[in-house]
Amino acid sequence: MSKQSGFNAVALQNFDPQAFLDRVWQREALLIKDALPNFQCPIDGDELAGLACEDDVDSRIVIEKDGAWELRNGPFKEADFSTLPASKWTLLVQSVDHYLPELAELLAHFRFIPRWRTEDIMVSYACDGGNVGPHYDQYDVFLVQGSGRRRWKVGGHCSAHTPLASQAGLRLLEDFSVEQEYLLDAGDVLYVPPGVAHWGIAEGDDCITLSVGFRAPSEASLLSDYGDDIASFLDESIRYQDPKLDAKAHPAEISADVRQHVKSLILQHIDNDAHLGRWFGEMMTRVPDQENFVDDSLSLEEFLLALTDGEPLQLRLGARLAFDDDYLFADGLAFPYPQDQRDDVKALCEIECGITIDIAHRLSQDMMYALFCNGTLCFYDDTQD
Description:
Elements: H1 17-23, E1 30-32, H2 45-52, E2 59-65, E3 68-73, H3 78-82, E4 89-93, H4 101-104, E5 118-126, E6 141-147, E7 150-157, E8 164-167, E9 170-173, E10 180-184, E11 189-192, E12 196-202, E13 207-214, H5 219-233, H6 256-270, H7 273-284, H8 300-308, E14 313-315, E15 321-323, E16 327-330, E17 333-336, H9 342-348, E18 356-357, H10 365-373, E19 377-379
Antiparallel strand pairs: 1-11, 2-3, 2-4, 4-5, 5-13, 6-11, 6-13, 7-10, 7-12, 8-9, 14-18, 14-19, 15-16, 16-17
Helix pairs in contact: 5-7
């Protein structure tokens, strides 16, 4: 058995992480009552609406009327909220943990799942009866009740062949049969695995749900991305060469020998553990619109001078970190590190959200600067509070 790192997630109450992983994870839904006792939601409806008005924030509103659903996409204006009906609407905002440190701290409770699988925290605000219809997701999600109450109806497992009723850009289930039903109060958590049908309906106003989602790339995208990565390193001058040919063979036939030859050409490039490890770490920590975070405003000398002057470093909200025996993976890039810094790299990957960090100072100056230029580390800005 391998030696444990000693890192432990912040425990949920009434919950055994290993038993969950062994018996429930990616198999069936599970309600964890009072998982976060005395939970105080770190965001309210007005703050969420304010975020939904920002140009770079992904937001939407779903309205139900007489069994039909309408989808409106943001960014919104303040006046848009005054025109909403009195009930049965929901505001959803993606990646709120990238903007609100108090919300990002919630992720510490779910670190029994690999960090590199974490996607983001979506926040939904609903008034009485608000819902987004019966549906299923293709990823794991923990639905944390932040405030108010929501009744969740859970159905069976769905597949690509499950009939859908497309409504205004929403992929809703044509038929929905309830197998389990739960009423969640603040601090309750409902886990829903990929492909399981579910339907949450707010009971009363000020219903806020925090959806902790986990990324799950399709096998098709894995193969496509890895193939593109391999191809980017190959020399175009290296061309296909024939195996031993038979002059008597039919000129239009593609023989089994040729197919086997092509298969061996492909496998010799794919079967490379070092290449696979670097690519997978980069892909699973990749951040959409990464170019928005790149910071080349300081030279190395200016960066080191700022450190010397006591400027505190912090981890960018939403930064994605992972590591293996050779690399620190940060926001889609692989940074090689010497083995004597392994413990420091591991410690960096245990840091949560945007808190000011000292551990980075134990890394090499070149790595700190590279992480700064990559936008993973940044200098603390006290104007954000």
